[in-house]
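A note from the maintainers: we've had questions about how concatenated examples are separated. There is no special marker in the raw files; a new sequence line simply starts the next protein. For clarity in this README we add a label.
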Amino acid sequence: MRRADWSGVHELVARLAAAPEAANVFGAHGHEWLLEPPLTAAELAAVEAQLRVELPGEYRSFLVEVGRGGAGPGYGLFSLRRVDGRWRWEGDGAQLTCLETLAEPFPHVEAFNPFDELPAQPYVKDYDSLEEFSAADDAWWKLYNSDPPVAGLLYLAHGGCSSWETLVVSGPARGQMWADDTGADGGLQPLHDDEGQPLGFARWYLRWLDGAAAQLSSGLHP
């Protein structure tokens, strides 16, 4: 199980929050540079028992060493909370995570777009009557608006403009961060670093933290 070195993260987030231009970092008005309290080991065990899956090591170490949500990429990390006796993530887009299927494998390892599998959009000229066209058009839009496959995919942050960043929990790409741009017809694709290597949770989060520090002051480092 992979772990990450989260030492200094709380201190750096606090220093960035105190910077004069902190509010100018993209998404800061959403998370306000606040980190929610970490989970206890018992709470993490309860989460994983409910989900019937062990979360990837870098993220689970973040949950118990740093926080259960808050300051992070985009408008901040969705917060993991216990509501009515059940654990769930909360935030704009957190509902896209299907808690019941997180243990099922996310089957993809390369970028894909579920809309590519749609049939051609109906045109009125191809139908004998307006009623036939309307029925076909309604059926097409129902397919278009259907949810993309989300088994094994944990939505962690809203990146703006109908884009979300997710963590693969189960399947061959387990531990990788992926972007979901289906809200803008862009499909889903793995996130990579500047060398083209897949990003795991730790490098994804720390790269954001480094970028925010560089924006506010080149002298701040975790």
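[label: protein 2]
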Amino acid sequence: MSKPELTAKSGPAPTELVINDLTVGDGAEATPGARVEVHYVGVDFETGEEFDSSWNRGQSIEFPLNGLIAGWQEGIPGMKVGGRRELICPPEKAYGPAGAGHFLSGKTLVFVIDLLDVK
């Protein structure tokens, strides 16, 4: 797979987590609290501006799901290795309301995640 191209979304930002499977994988399934290896891109819902990408660093990243934002904890389980999934995370499922102390607080975020491995 290659790095996905994301653009700004139109219409109002969702208030609930939105999960869209872009490619359904056929490998091992991620479970809540699993350790996963992923490639991902994150952009601001309104502007389409990219704020983070493992692709740009040239390497995937591995971590336990229970250490991540709620949108990832809820949005990755059920995904299978080889899959690509879009998650649209409202502030409550991302970095909290505006003023919560993170530079992305108060923003709705869009991630495209490629699941490479479940450990």
